[in-house]
Specification:
- The protein is mainly alpha-helical.
- The chain is 61% helix and 4% strand.
- It has 21 helices and ten strands.
- The strands form five sheets. A two-stranded antiparallel sheet has the order 1-2. A two-stranded antiparallel sheet has the order 3-6. Strands 4-5 form a two-stranded antiparallel sheet.
- A hairpin with a 4-residue loop joins strand 8 (524-525) and strand 9 (530-531).
- Helix 3 (60-75) packs parallel to helix 9 (182-203) and helix 6 crosses helix 9.
- It is globular.
- The relative contact order is 0.07.
Length: 538
């Protein structure tokens, strides 16, 4: 309709175009809510076949803190709205920004409307209450009511209406909860607007004050006592409001008392919706679910098992394209390497490979890592797996380096744990048994000439043979777990076990040294207490 979309912080960015349009145009340190402004200045298209999912807060206080930041950011755009031509804001862009301001005023204006009606000014309190409830819950209620009408006839109607009625009850409950939180929401919005006005007009400080969602979630309180203490001003404000209404001679003392009592219990509502849920009784997986997840994990390990080898210097390729034909991406990153090392350790714990194969794989990859170019202990973001040369531009990614260090430490601990009993063959026995159970129905299907399952059977047979071959390597090396000389789980003895333990502990020390060699100090911003995204080397 208007020839453009709305940028809300998630989307596909044309970096060069954004840089060309926005570079040097926005004032430093003054734009907190940048989404609408950037989308208005750089123009934003609409893509309707992509869905972006953002994690919602699990605590009411975290959601309120995020709304407080959004409100401050929206009101900080007032100077831009005052000079729309300077910033290239069209009428539709101005309307979007003004609509955000209007939305932030809904709670304060609703509280003012109810307060005036209870004092006998204007419309009746019941009419005011109906308007307030409609303002907060009309949208969800209309959506829930529309959901009661099925879009087609071939539905399980009992299940459909049960879900639709549950949505309706959820919308009604949400409206009541928002009514209970009205006083707290109005105070929060008023605080955000007042802070912004003071900072814009007077102090010129803290305009970019920001608390990350992770930090807000970590600071959130879940106990009833701590929450009542943190929100102690809300019941006090409700009591003061009731006293003012009674002193003013309200014609509706019972309704005023009921609403103020409801608002005073807002901290209890916050605790109720934010409390940690107890563990469900059906949370444990049954045998069928565990077998299915085990099959998925085994299929995932197949990529590393077949694609990591001497042709790629024992480094994991980035991906394997299978359609329309197989094509291996001969490049890797620190995250890929870390995931491979940890996956190999997990494969040993699941029994898909034995200790000898694990040692061979880890030692070969470690030897390659020792020869790769690094910067201040950090592996670079991309390497050619066939030559080991870093790919341009050479870059240290903070996230990738952090991932690799975490994976190295986890793999080191797995090696230390396995060193206590390197000859334990119980995991291999379980893996072989699970593989036989998976093969049984596939063999039956093959005998009935079902071509759709032949590829799956071929892969599973290859997996089964690989597991047996790896187990035989352990037997040949003197690991008696599968040979029956040592009961599964019993302490190992002998030269073979001692040698395997020494190699595992040596690997653990090497992984810990690689993780410790990465110097993160130059990537850390001490003033902001945040890490930079990365460092351009060349």
């Amino acid at each position: 309709l208007f020839g453009e979309g709305t940028f809300t912080g998630k989307g596909l960015l044309h970096v060069q175009a954004m840089q060309a349009v926005l570079a040097g145009r926005l004032p430093d340190g003054r734009v907190l809510s940048h989404d609408l402004l950037e989308g208005s200045m750089a123009r934003c298209g609409t893509v309707t076949d992509i869905t972006v999912i953002e994690e919602a807060p699990f605590h009411a206080d975290v959601a309120a803190a995020r709304l407080h930041r959004w409100t401050r950011g929206d009101w900080q755009l007032l100077p831009f709205l005052a000079q729309p031509r300077r910033w290239g804001l069209r009428a539709i862009n101005q309307w979007k920004m003004f609509d955000n301001l209007r939305r932030s005023l809904v709670a304060p204006m609703s509280l003012a409307l109810l307060g005036l009606s209870l004092a006998g000014v204007g419309i009746t309190p019941l009419a005011a209450l109906a308007l307030v409830v409609a303002a907060f819950s009309a949208g969800p209620l209309m959506g829930a009511v529309a959901g009661l009408s099925p879009s087609r006839d071939d539905l399980a109607k009992r299940h459909f209406y049960a879900q639709a009625l549950a949505d309706l009850a959820r919308a009604l409950g949400g409206g009541l909860w928002l009514l209970q939180q009205l006083l707290a929401q109005a105070a929060m919005a008023g605080d955000a607007i007042a802070r912004t006005a003071w900072r814009l007009a007077v102090s010129q400080r803290h305009l970019l004050q920001w608390t990350t969602a992770a930090a807000a979630q970590a600071q959130a309180r879940h106990g009833l006592g701590p929450l009542l203490l943190a929100h102690r001003r809300t019941p006090l404000a409700a009591l003061v409001l009731l006293a003012v209404l009674l002193a003013a001679g309200t014609p509706y003392p019972l309704l005023a008392g009921g609403l103020c009592l409801l608002w005073a219990t807002a901290p209890i509502g916050t605790w109720w919706v934010s409390r940690r849920q107890p563990r469900r009784k059906d949370a444990n997986l049954g045998p069928a679910e565990r077998a299915r997840l085990g099959d998925i994990a085994r299929d995932t390990w197949r990529f590393f098992e077949r694609c990591v080898g001497p042709d790629d210097q024992h480094l994991p390729p980035d991906n394997l394209q299978t359609v329309p034909h197989e094509m291996l991406a001969h490049r890797t990153s620190p995250t890929n390497i870390g995931l491979y090392l940890l996956s190999a350790a997990c494969a040993r714990q699941f029994g898909w490979i034995g200790t000898q194969e694990l040692l061979s794989r880890l030692e070969a990859t470690t030897a390659t890592l020792d020869g790769l170019l690094r910067h201040r202990g950090h592996f670079l973001n991309w390497y050619d797996t066939q030559t080991g040369a870093p790919l341009l531009p050479m870059y240290v990614s903070t996230v990738d380096s952090g991932n690799l260090c975490g994976h190295l430490l986890a793999t080191a601990q797995a090696c230390r744990e396995l060193a206590d009993a390197p000859h334990d063959g119980a995991a291999a026995q379980r893996a072989i048994s699970a593989s036989r159970q998976r093969l049984a129905p596939l063999l039956v299907a093959a005998s009935r000439r079902q071509p759709a399952r032949r590829d799956e059977l071929r892969c599973c047979l290859a997996d089964h043979r690989a597991t047996l071959r790896s187990a035989r390597l352990d037997v040949q090396a003197g690991l008696a777990g599968l040979a029956g000389q040592t009961p599964a789980g019993a302490p190992d003895a002998g030269v073979g076990a001692l040698l395997a333990s020494h190699r595992l502990l040596a690997l653990a020390r090497r992984f810990e040294a690689l993780a410790g060699a990465a110097d993160f100090r130059f990537l850390y911003h001490r003033k902001r207490h945040l890490f930079h995204i990365g460092w351009r080397v060349a």
